[in-house]
Amino acid sequence: MQENELIPHLFRTEYRKIVSVLCKKFGIQYMETAEDLVSETFLLAAETWGLKGLPKNPTAWLYIVSKNKAKDLLKHHAVFSQKVAPELKLNSSTEETEIDWSSKNINDSQLQMMFAICNSCITTEAQIGLSLNILCGFGAEEIADAFLDNKETIYKRLARAKEKLRAENVKIELPPPAEIDQRLETVLTTLYLLFSEGYYSSSQNITLRKDLCVEAMRLTLMLADNEQTSTPSANALLSLMCFHASRFDARTNSNGDLILYEEQEEALWNQELIQKGQYYLNRSSSGNKLSKYHLEAAIAYWHTHKADTHEKWENILQLYNRLLLLEYSPMAALNRTYALAKANGKEQAIAEAEKLDLSGSHFYYSLLADLYTGINNDKALEHLKAALSLARTSTDKKTIERTISRLSEKKG
Amino acid sequence: MKEFLLIFRNASGQQSQMSPEQLQAMMKPWQDWMGGIAAQNKLVSPGNRLEADGRVVKPDNVVTNGPYVEIKEAVGGYIIIRAASLDEAAAISKGCPILTVGGTVEVRALVPMD
């Protein structure tokens, strides 16, 4: 790896580890102190490595320097040492501050940090933002890019969330076994939304969007790899992510335009991720709780079969029926109606689509247009125009415009 | 929006004689119908199916077995939906698969608890 790529790379992989380990050691009150300290460490690395050359083990260098910085802080801040040292069961500020850099502690600290951040005392947006910030090493600017929000808003949101976690004195630890399932639900929701943000977001920055998905998968994998947190739901969520991610390269062209599922090149689907998805889907099929992640993973599994068989669409329809019984969402309602058309025919699907009260969404009109295509192309065109007037992002508009011109050609 | 209880009545005792394939074929219209209500965000509770066997408890320690002498058709299940009016709830009920096998749907508005 080139030297100028090394520091950004290490920042991505090590920042979260060092911050998590330090926070675990000193408590969540010092989250911002820990972040500052790690940022300073990286700044120092950028300065000295350029002048003196790379250390033999850059990662160990970062650990040692950040540890020394933490020690200095302990020494120099009288308040810190008097108030915190007793809590840490340190006899005096001169005692050697040992920090455990074993891979087990690094891993455990990050897992525990995940539970600390995904705490229902802060809003879901704040949980996602903080996860990106602390657990993925994203700066406020990158987070703002991903959310199409301005940097100041994100900055304030993060600061408020950290303040709240501190005020609530949230512990950095795994919940007791009896509470794991319930607390894990909040964590899984955050990771699910983080992944969706990357997969469906309207941001044009494809690299950034892919990064969000990869980070969400990495964090979910940590849950699936840990005995205490590897619940059926966590495995189902990871399976779902693998299936979706397998189409990442097939669903956009080189201009960043969205390629619809029917038009995707199957050869571009990532087989390795599809197999991983199947692996985690199998692992998720224990216990007696069927989560929405199970249903969505099973739907995604059927989508890895390109061929339009009756079996495929009947299964997808029934999975959507069950998903909707569990939890209503407009997207599930629209997708269910599409599956209904494939399984039971367009006529029934049109009748049911007309009953959906979703006239504010361009997806709704795109669905109606699709159902009417071949039955009443004038109506289909009308719906496409309605969809176009509601679409907000240029990607969506382009996709709809392409469909309009194709349908117009057919008519002409 | 008000909530309505839909009560399904049918001559009891049919289901037990069905093969798994027949049962599956019978379930699909129900799953599709309820999925359609849920897709409109109008399903409050998927309710339950009821076993055919039952007891009727009357005053003075009188307990009788089902099937029931007072009503020709036994209650086979129920769901709760959301609708703007009794008429809309009845319109939704017109799609209920029980109607295709000679059953009926009784539609009743729930009285909200104070």
Task: Describe the secondary-structure layout.
The complex is a heterodimer of chains A (412) and B (114).
Chain A: H1 3-26, H2 31-52, H3 58-76, H4 78-87, H5 103-117, H6 124-135, H7 140-147, H8 151-167, H9 177-200, H10 206-225, H11 232-245, H12 271-283, H13 292-303, H14 310-326, H15 330-344, H16 346-355, H17 362-372, H18 377-390, H19 394-411
Chain B: E1 2-10, H1 20-39, E2 43-49, E3 55-58, E4 62-65, E5 74-83, H2 86-93, E6 104-109
Antiparallel strand pairs in B: 1-5, 1-6, 2-5, 3-4
Short description:
With 412 residues, chain A is an all-alpha fold. In chain A, 72% of the residues lie in helices and 0% in strands. In chain B, strands 2-5-1-6 form a four-stranded antiparallel beta sheet, with helices on one face. Chain B has a two-stranded antiparallel ribbon with strand order 3-4.
Notes on the protein architecture:
In chain A, α13 packs antiparallel against α14. Chain A has helices at 3-26, 31-52, 58-76, 78-87, 103-117, 124-135, 140-147, 151-167, 177-200, 206-225, 232-245, 271-283, 292-303, 310-326, 330-344, 346-355, 362-372, 377-390, 394-411. Chain A is built from 19 helices and no strands. Among the domains of chain A are: 1-101; 310-347, no CATH class; 359-412. Chain A has 412 residues and is an all-alpha fold. Chain B has 114 residues and is an alpha+beta fold. Chain B has one domain: Alpha-Beta Plaits, CATH 3.30.70. Helix content of chain B is 25%, strand content 35%. A 4-stranded antiparallel beta sheet of chain B has the order 2-5-1-6, covered by helices on one side. In chain B, strands 3-4 form a two-stranded antiparallel ribbon. The longest helix of chain B has 20 residues, at 20-39. The two termini of chain B are 17 Å apart. The mean pLDDT of chain B is 88. At the A-B interface, α14 and α15 of A face α1 of B.
